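ENTRY TYPE: protein
WANTED: fold as tokens:
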Amino acid sequence: MKNLLNPLYLSEEKIKELRKQFESAKPCKHIALDNFLLDDVANTLYENFPKLETLNVKRKSINENKSEEYHFENFHPQFGEMRDFLNTPEMYEWISKVTGIDDLRSTYDSLGSGVHQGGQGSFVDVHVDINMNPAAQLHRRINLLIYLNKNWKDEYGGALEFWDKDVKNCVSSVLPNFNRAAIMITDETSYHGYAKINIPEGESRKSFYCYYYTPAGTDFVYRDSRFKSRPDESITKAAITEVKETLKI
């Protein structure tokens, strides 16, 4: 299969540099890569990104407001090609070298690849992700997010925020600019999210996601996603969030 990544990121020297950046990032291991995909691939994905109203999975609660979809048969063929490429042995090897986690692989279900999109007011509160793909019995280790937002302005907000383990301070952030990839570890303390966006009519926050896993092992214990409130949230919302998340345990 044709390589879809920018050749800049394929040399062993560059991979070593990325590994160093990834491992030294705070508050959790992560990295942002600009011009991640070949130009023609990124442009095709952008130009054919599914309309917000066509996405069937609506995540709307006190802690999030976004839509997603993973039925690739409804998308332009480039999306399926992207998913297939992200599931090649070559991509598995590349992401393992960059992150230092051996034996990474993805899946072809909703917890493998798909698209996220948010309209005006979209947000996802600070959280850690579900720790496994239960059906596949795989331990979730890495998120790859490829942003597909042309002409995104800082004042729109929507940066991917990385918070400390106590969710007291936002330590680092990545704006969702066009053809920028964010690669992040997912563990017990990798708190992340994005604040409510304020965008013009007709705009949306778009991304392609792929989650990578390792074998879970027979003694691995499932944990659902876990939200926490930002320090500036209202007392009422913080209390509701705390009760809701406690009931998951």
In short: Helices lie at 12-24, 39-47, 77-86, 89-99, 235-248. The chain has a mean pLDDT of 96. Residues 235-248 form the longest helix (14 residues). The chain is about 25% helix and 30% strand.
